[in-house]
């Protein structure tokens, strides 16, 4: 089920776990070495880029001063993100494995459909990632010939962050599906005298999966949110300055025309990935609330008392242990975050445009 995602992580040298003989285990010594090597390589690549920002061939492609500030911001966020990936993958590898094992236990009892669709979606993400990375590299080498090759490699390396986001999205999708199936099982079997006594334990495991998810991804969500906000504003200002360059400079106009689509697509891609993560989390909150409604229906129905007691215990557990994800105690990861992010971006982009046309 997770093999495509594991292969993708291993291909970019940021494994979160290991699958050996169809058994999932935390990162062992070999995988930790691969992880450290991969992050060190990406980190050194960004350091090399930072110290060669003022090389002649780089400055020849620099047509506005804002480009230098963009490079500073890129270097800071990229290196911070790589360090975060290293820490999280070393520290929370066991939490990811616990998540998968708990999901498998739930899957055995409440599964109503095959997991083939989920596996296909993982393969789709794998193939889409490869197509995007290869297409981006080909575009840069074929069209943006004015930038050095190491800058192209550094830009392609940022797709590593997308692997982490894709994994976060797919895990939350799977968790949502299992909570939906738990609700269906509870409704179907509620009048049955042999109502599965494991339902309470399964709900505990679902909440435990959610807690492990929060531990593993809350820090990356904070960095992603901050990076998307600042990167978007910085690049919008960069584009504004691009189009204030006199049109008589043909070489500069060529750079602007080929760079603008890359910048816009990169910003949109990052925002879409964060949008999906937020919406998947919001969907989880809604589904979990529906599970409480399901338990309320069972309690008020003519079901056996043992089944009603089980549902009362589920509701007590929910009240005691469930809360929305509050990423590093800074903000809640729900649809309101999306609205705040859009509001901030809209307000500040309008301000930048006002200053541009003063």
Automatic annotation (TrEMBL):
Secreted among keywords: no
Keyword hit for Transmembrane helix: yes
Annotated transmembrane regions: 29-48, 69-92, 121-140, 216-235, 255-279, 331-357
Keywords for this protein: Membrane, Transmembrane, Transmembrane helix
Domain of life per record: Eukaryota
Protein name in UniProt: SFRICE011344.2
Organism: Spodoptera frugiperda (Fall armyworm)
Taxonomic lineage: Eukaryota, Metazoa, Ecdysozoa, Arthropoda, Hexapoda
């Amino acid at each position: 089920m997770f093999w495509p995602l594991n292969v993708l992580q291993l291909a970019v040298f940021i494994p979160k776990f290991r699958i050996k003989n169809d058994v999932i285990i935390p990162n062992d010594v070999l995988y930790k070495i691969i992880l450290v090597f991969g992050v060190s390589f990406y980190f050194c690549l960004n350091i090399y880029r930072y110290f060669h920002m003022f090389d002649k061939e780089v400055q020849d492609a620099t047509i506005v001063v804002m480009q230098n500030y963009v490079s500073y911001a890129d270097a800071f966020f990229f290196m911070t993100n790589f360090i975060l990936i290293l820490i999280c993958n070393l520290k929370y590898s066991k939490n990811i494995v616990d998540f998968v094992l708990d999901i498998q236990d739930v899957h055995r009892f409440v599964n109503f459909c095959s997991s083939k669709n989920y596996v296909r979606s993982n393969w789709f993400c794998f193939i889409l990632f490869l197509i995007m990375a290869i297409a981006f590299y080909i575009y840069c080498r074929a069209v943006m010939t004015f930038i050095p090759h190491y800058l192209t490699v550094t830009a392609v390396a940022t797709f590593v962050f997308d692997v982490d986001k894709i994994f976060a999205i797919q895990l939350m999708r799977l968790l949502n599906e299992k909570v939906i199936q738990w609700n269906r099982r509870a409704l179907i079997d509620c009048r049955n005298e042999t109502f599965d006594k494991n339902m309470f334990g399964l709900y505990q495991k679902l909440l435990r999966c959610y807690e492990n998810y929060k531990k593993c991804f809350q820090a990356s969500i904070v960095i992603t949110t901050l990076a998307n906000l600042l990167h978007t504003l910085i690049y919008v200002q960069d584009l504004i300055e691009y189009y204030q360059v006199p049109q008589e400079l043909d070489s500069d106009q060529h750079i602007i025309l080929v760079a603008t689509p890359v910048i816009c697509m990169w910003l949109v891609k990052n925002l879409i990935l964060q949008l999906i993560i937020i919406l998947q989390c919001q969907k989880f909150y809604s589904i979990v609330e529906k599970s409480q409604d399901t338990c309320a229906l069972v309690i008020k129905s003519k079901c056996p008392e043992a089944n009603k007691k089980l549902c009362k215990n589920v509701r007590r557990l929910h009240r005691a242990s469930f809360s929305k994800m509050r990423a590093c105690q800074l903000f809640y990861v729900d649809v309101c975050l999306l609205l705040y992010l859009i509001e901030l971006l809209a307000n500040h982009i309008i301000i930048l445009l006002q200053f541009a046309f003063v």
